[in-house]
């Protein structure tokens, strides 16, 4: 909640909080999710809603300003929520929210050169420590944003360079979080994350279009294509391919060849059992894996497979979104979400509705095909354009561009009525009683009665394109604004009282004053008028050209004020046709005001604009002309209408994105006008008399049916008692035989048990001895092997020491020889220095050559020594590693044998425990046998007693059978009588059917005649309108002709005076000039002269048309034979109806007689039964 201008006293500011929000954004990927507390998470307007449908409570998380969500995804542990948001200026970024506190935890930025790139899909890794993102072509990059302190971003190409495919979807491995799968058109890559980026571990060459995929396990990937195919990829290789819509099982143990063979064998059976499913869209979407199985979407169907074994999945459920009132493509499922208990699934479609279903059908239900049910109420799927409330009931009525009208009850949070039309609805308005409503279409305005489940049209007005309709505060008048007219009608007799004309432009809004004596209207030409309803005159006229007054309202208290919202973001207050103050709404774009809502107390005002801002303006206004605004930022688009509830405690709003919201207002003590407490508690509804009669008839027929079923039930009880006695005797015999068999089986089982126990003890002793011998041999072998290896290791170490000593001696010898040669050379040089000074250069050269040779020789010696040392070192190191590996292998074998020994020990202990359990069970079975023997003895006593009772009852049954035979004979006689009566009734029924067919034909003819009459009436109406227009034109022409005669008369008089000047040429010239100047400048004369020919032609054309129409109607009136034929048909219809009523009375009399006879027979049977029972 942001304050544009904060008021000085916050206690006086009216605050609102959301009470009921109905809406859903369908432009967001992943717009449905479950959290751990089973709250449904979905975006609506500029917030994220957390809706608990069990308690019907909502929480909201507001998105940052000037941002829109594009993708929403949830982590696997359902504690974090990632939202890809797009800012108007800063581009795209990812916000991480913590679901427990609804606080923003992290802010992740995409790389700088990819902030404006469109993102295809976004997922959490399985450990919830990173987010993987795939971008849209042509970039086709894959990013992994780590949720660490540094915010590491790893990026790479989502496709192979040079490929013609594209990346569209991504899936994360549940075991290795650095392993991802990327799919798209002719693309399926398995990629792994590294420190430098992403590396492609496997590039599958595919010729299909991957639309969705999910990992079932670490090495199993299920892929869905755009051509109704499921493809199983195992360890980077395609293993199995089958049709998604026809797949019943997914077996991981068979390959493609075996699957094709089994499919060909079972093809005839599949062709008989399965009906082909014709789906408009064959893409496999929303592939989702969960612990119990996996699921995917095809158009409006969801296929759920359950894991029945480690290597097999079976199809358990097919959930379908039923196609109802909207176009079929709108039922395409776009997103799915499964709760953490894996019991419930919710989906969203192309239209704004959430559906819920059972994920896996229980085995008690013998069906796999179920339908999704709407979660919550059925909301609008298009822009909501009209809103209305009433005074008697807590309901509101809305109209949308999806061609539906809905009535909402904001106390019970339910929808009471949904009505779909074939044309667009422009406006709706509820009467104060809530029993009638006005509905505006493009060509007319209809007054309807609101029934329980339908709308009944009462009156139709020819008011096209109504911009605003308002019922008066007292509910007796209705004002409808269409084009530049305002029509005032009566609510009681539905007559047009007065038509207010005066606007030059379209009337955009109307408002009633408190007493309904005046009406305020605002138009697109910049005019606001106050009308007196009784006289139709204008009391106030405010005209400001260049301004459109989109909404107007008036105060309820004196002095009387008019508030108007303009198309450039200002609110103007007028009193006595003068502008008192003008207030600018503090919005960013200075957009138009969409609606102003003023409370009846004149102390609360809310304003909405086209930018989605909802402002509360503190009243009364300041004297300086300013206002204090409080902005409640919730909506993401245009707010169309605002309304207060009748009691003034709730605020209703509708938006362009199809959201209907109800807000509760706080801090309104002393700011709400008083209201009668019983006013909003009306529960009355309208129901047609025909429906009520049908319901009463259904109740009476059901009562008769209940009585008949009670009598049948009593008869069945008596028959069941006889049958139960017979069954009891058979059960007794079978029980005795079963007991004897059980005794024999028990003895045999005891013998087998003793033999098996002896065998088990012998086997356990043998296994213990074998195990002991194996352990002793392994221990001896292990100790010997260790001694041998230790000796080898000591020998290797001694040889290494010897090599090292020899190498050091060689180095010492080489240094000694070097020193000796240098001394000898120095002595020779000193001796020859005096004698051979000329040969110094040559000697120096020879010395240098010898030095270089010696250095090379030393270098070669050192290299050879190094090589030998390295070779020996590597040899001995290899030997050491082999020995170590062998020792580790033997240790491992010893550990395995020790584990086997421990497992066998545990098995022996378990077998001993089972032996003890079997002993206890044996003792229990012996106790049960003793109890059963006692029970048998008791039952035998009961059987003897019951045998005696059965023998007595059998005698009684025989007596009753004789009586039943007599009653059956009587029943046959009555059956013959009933058959005779039916034979008498049947021919009359044939006659009735013939009459009915004749009546239907007559009714069809009457409907055709009625349609012809309607067409003729319409033609008459058109001709009358043309006649009236012609009369008006005649009046105008007469007026023009009268003016022309006067003009001609004046011209003749002037010519007479001019003729007197015939004697003097100069006077005649002057008189002619004056005559010409006087009459040549007459514009009316010019116009008459120019239009004379056109008027004559138009008059002749209209005259011919009227003569043709009159001739047509004369011929129709003269043809009286048709009327006589219709009269004759009507009389025959009346006589047929009278005969049918007589036949119905006769049938009812016969049916009543048959019922009385049946009742008499039943009464006689009961009396006979009672007499026999009393005698016995």
Number of continuous helical runs: 7
Shape by Cα distribution: flat
How many runs of DSSP E, i.e. beta strands? 58
Q: Based on helices, strands and strand pairing, what is the structural class?
A: alpha+beta
Distance between the termini: 89 Å
Note down, in words, how this protein is organized:
The structure is a single chain. Helix content is 42%, strand content 30%. It is of the alpha+beta class. Among the domains are: 15-109; 118-206; 1035-1112; 1119-1170. Strands 22, 23, 24, 25, 26 and 30 form a six-stranded mixed sheet that branches. The chain has a four-stranded antiparallel sheet with strand order 1-58-57-56, with no helix packed on it. The longest helix is centred in the C-terminal third of the chain and has 220 residues, at 840-1059. The protein is flat, with a radius of gyration of 51 Å.
List the keywords.
1176 residues; alpha+beta; 6-stranded mixed beta sheet; 58 strands; flat; disordered N terminus; WD repeat; flagellum; Cilia- and flagella-associated protein 57
Topology:
Layout (H helix, E strand, L loop, with lengths): L14 E8 L10 E2 L5 E5 L2 E6 L4 E6 L4 E8 L5 E8 L3 E8 L4 E7 L9 E6 L5 E6 L5 E6 L6 E5 L8 E7 L6 E7 L1 E7 L4 E6 L6 E6 L4 E6 L3 E6 L2 E7 L5 E3 L4 H10 L1 H7 L11 E6 L2 E6 L2 E9 L2 E9 L12 E6 L5 E6 L4 E5 L10 E3 L1 E2 L9 E6 L5 E6 L3 E6 L4 E7 L4 E6 L5 E6 L3 E6 L4 E7 L4 E6 L5 E6 L2 E6 L5 E6 L5 E6 L5 E6 L3 E6 L5 E6 L5 E6 L7 E5 L3 E6 L2 E7 L8 E6 L5 E6 L4 E5 L10 E3 L7 E6 L5 E6 L4 E7 L22 H147 L4 H220 L5 H16 L2 H36 L2 H55 L1
Parallel strand pairs: 26-30
Antiparallel strand pairs: 1-58, 2-3, 3-4, 4-5, 6-7, 7-8, 8-9, 10-11, 11-12, 12-13, 14-15, 15-16, 16-17, 18-19, 19-20, 20-21, 22-26, 23-24, 24-25, 25-26, 27-28, 28-29, 29-31, 32-33, 33-34, 34-35, 36-37, 37-38, 38-39, 40-41, 41-42, 42-43, 44-45, 45-46, 46-47, 48-49, 49-50, 50-51, 52-53, 53-54, ...
Helix pairs in contact: 3-4, 4-5, 4-6, 4-7
């Amino acid at each position: 909640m942001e304050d544009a201008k904060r008021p000085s006293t916050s206690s006086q500011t009216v605050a609102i909080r959301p009470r009921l929000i109905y809406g859903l954004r369908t432009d967001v990927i992943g717009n449905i999710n479950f959290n751990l507390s089973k709250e449904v998470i979905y975006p609506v307007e500029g917030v994220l809603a957390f809706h608990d449908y069990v308690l019907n409570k909502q929480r909201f998380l507001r998105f940052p300003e000037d941002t829109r969500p594009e993708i929403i995804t949830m982590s696997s542990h359902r504690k974090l929520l990632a939202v890809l948001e797009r800012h108007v200026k800063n581009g795209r970024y990812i916000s991480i929210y913590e679901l427990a506190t609804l606080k923003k935890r992290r802010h992740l930025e995409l790389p700088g050169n990819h902030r404006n790139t469109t993102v295809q899909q976004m997922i959490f890794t399985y450990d919830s420590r990173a987010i993987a993102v795939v971008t849209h072509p042509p970039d086709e990059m894959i990013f992994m944003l780590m949720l660490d302190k540094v915010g590491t971003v790893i990026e790479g190409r989502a496709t192979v360079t040079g490929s013609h495919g594209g990346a569209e979807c991504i899936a994360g491995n549940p075991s290795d979080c650095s392993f991802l799968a990327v799919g798209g058109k002719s693309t399926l890559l398995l990629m792994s994350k590294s420190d430098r980026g992403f590396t492609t571990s496997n590039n599958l060459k595919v010729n299909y279009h991957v639309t969705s995929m999910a990992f079932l396990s670490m090495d199993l990937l299920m892929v869905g294509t755009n051509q109704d195919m499921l493809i199983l990829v195992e360890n980077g290789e395609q293993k199995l391919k089958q049709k998604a819509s026809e797949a019943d099982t997914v077996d991981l143990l068979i390959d493609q060849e075996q699957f094709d063979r089994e499919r060909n064998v079972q093809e005839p059976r599949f062709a008989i059992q399965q009906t082909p499913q014709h789906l408009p869209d064959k893409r496999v979407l929303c592939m989702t894996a969960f612990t119990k199985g996996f699921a995917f979407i095809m158009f409006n169907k969801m296929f759920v497979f359950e894991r029945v074994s480690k290597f097999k999945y079976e199809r358990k459920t097919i959930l379908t979104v039923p196609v109802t009132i909207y176009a079929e493509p709108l039922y395409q499922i776009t997103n799915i979400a499964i709760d953490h208990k894996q019991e419930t699934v919710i989906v969203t479609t192309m239209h704004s509705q959430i559906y819920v279903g059972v994920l896996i059908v229980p085995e008690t239900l013998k069906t796999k095909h179920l339908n999704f049910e709407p979660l919550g109420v059925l909301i609008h799927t298009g822009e909501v354009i009209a809103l209305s409330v009433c005074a008697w009931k807590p309901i509101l009525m809305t109209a949308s561009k999806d061609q539906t009208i809905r009535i909402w009850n904001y106390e019970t949070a339910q929808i009471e009525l949904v009505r779909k039309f074939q044309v667009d609805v422009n406006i709706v308005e509820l009467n104060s009683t809530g029993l009638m409503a006005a509905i505006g279409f493009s060509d007319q305005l209809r007054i309807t009665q609101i029934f329980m489940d339908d709308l009944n049209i009462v009156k139709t007005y020819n008011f096209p394109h109504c911009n605003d309709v308002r019922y008066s505060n007292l509910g007796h008048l209705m004002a409808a604004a269409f084009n530049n007219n305002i029509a005032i009608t009566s609510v009681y007799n539905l007559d047009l009282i007065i038509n207010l004309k005066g606007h030059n432009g379209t009337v955009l809004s109307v408002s009633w004053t408190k007493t309904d004596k005046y009406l305020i209207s605002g138009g697109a030409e910049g005019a606001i008028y106050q009308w007196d309803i009784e006289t139709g005159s204008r009391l106030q006229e405010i005209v400001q050209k260049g301004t459109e007054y989109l909404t107007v309202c008036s105060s309820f208290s004196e002095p009387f004020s008019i508030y108007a919202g303009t198309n450039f973001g200002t609110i103007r207050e007028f009193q006595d046709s003068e502008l008192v103050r003008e207030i600018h709404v503090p919005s960013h774009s200075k957009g138009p005001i969409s609606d102003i809502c003023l409370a009846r107390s004149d102390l609360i005002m809310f304003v909405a604009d086209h930018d989605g801002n909802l402002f509360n303006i503190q009243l009364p206004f300041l004297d300086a002309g300013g206002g204090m605004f409080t902005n409640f930022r919730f909506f993401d688009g245009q707010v169309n209408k605002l309304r207060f509830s009748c009691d003034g405690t709730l605020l209703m709003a509708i938006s362009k994105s199809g959201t209907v919201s109800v807000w509760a207002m706080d801090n309104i003590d002393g700011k709400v006008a008083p209201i009668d407490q019983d006013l909003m508690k009306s529960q009355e509804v309208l129901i047609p008399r025909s429906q009520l009669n049908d319901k009463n008839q259904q109740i009476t027929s059901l009562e008769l049916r209940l009585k008949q079923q009670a009598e049948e039930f009593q008869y069945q009880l008596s028959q069941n008692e006889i049958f139960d006695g017979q069954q009891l005797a058979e059960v007794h015999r079978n029980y005795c035989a079963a007991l004897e068999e059980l005794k024999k089986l028990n003895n045999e089982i005891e013998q087998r048990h003793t033999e098996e126990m002896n065998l088990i003890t012998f086997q356990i002793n043998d296994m213990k001895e074998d195990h002991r011998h194996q352990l002793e041999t392994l221990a001896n072998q292990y100790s010997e092997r260790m001694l041998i290896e230790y000796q080898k290791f000591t020998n290797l170490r001694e040889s290494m020491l010897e090599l090292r000593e020899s190498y050091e001696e060689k180095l010492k010898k080489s240094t000694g020889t070097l020193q000796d040669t240098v001394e000898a050379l120095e002595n020779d040089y000193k001796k020859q220095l005096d004698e051979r000074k000329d040969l110094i250069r040559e000697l120096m050269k020879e010395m240098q050559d010898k030095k270089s040779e010696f250095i090379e020789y030393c270098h070669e010696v050192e290299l050879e020594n190094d090589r030998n040392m390295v070779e020996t070192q590597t040899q001995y190191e290899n030997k050491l590693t082999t020995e170590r590996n062998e020792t580790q292998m033997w240790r491992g074998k010893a550990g395995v044998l020790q584990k086997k020994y421990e497992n066998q020990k545990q098995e022996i202990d378990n077998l001993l425990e089972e032996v003890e359990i079997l002993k206890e069970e044996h003792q229990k079975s012996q106790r049960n046998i003793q109890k059963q023997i006692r029970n048998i003895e008791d039952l035998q006593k009961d059987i003897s007693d019951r045998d005696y009772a059965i023998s007595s009852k059998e005698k009684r049954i025989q007596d009753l059978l004789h009586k039943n035979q007599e009653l059956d004979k009587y029943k046959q006689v009555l059956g013959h009588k009933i058959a005779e009566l039916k034979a008498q009734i049947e021919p009359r029924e044939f006659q009735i059917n013939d009459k009915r067919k004749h009546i239907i034909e007559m009714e069809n003819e009457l409907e055709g005649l009625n349609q012809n009459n309607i067409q003729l009436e319409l033609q008459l109406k058109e001709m009358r309108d043309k006649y009236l227009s012609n009369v008006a034109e005649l009046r105008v022409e007469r007026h023009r002709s009268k003016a022309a005669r006067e003009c001609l008369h004046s011209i003749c008089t002037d010519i007479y005076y001019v003729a007197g000047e015939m004697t003097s040429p100069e006077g005649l010239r002057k008189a002619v000039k004056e005559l010409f100047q006087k009459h040549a400048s007459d514009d009316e004369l010019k116009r008459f002269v120019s239009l004379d020919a056109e008027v004559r032609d138009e008059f002749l054309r209209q005259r011919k048309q009227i003569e043709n129409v009159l001739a047509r109607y004369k011929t129709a009136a003269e043809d009286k034979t048709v009327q006589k034929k219709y009269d004759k048909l009507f009389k025959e219809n009346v006589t047929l109806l009278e005969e049918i009523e007589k036949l119905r009375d006769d049938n009812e009399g016969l049916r009543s007689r048959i019922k009385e006879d049946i009742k008499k027979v039943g009464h006689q049977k009961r009396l006979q039964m009672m007499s026999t029972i009393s005698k016995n």
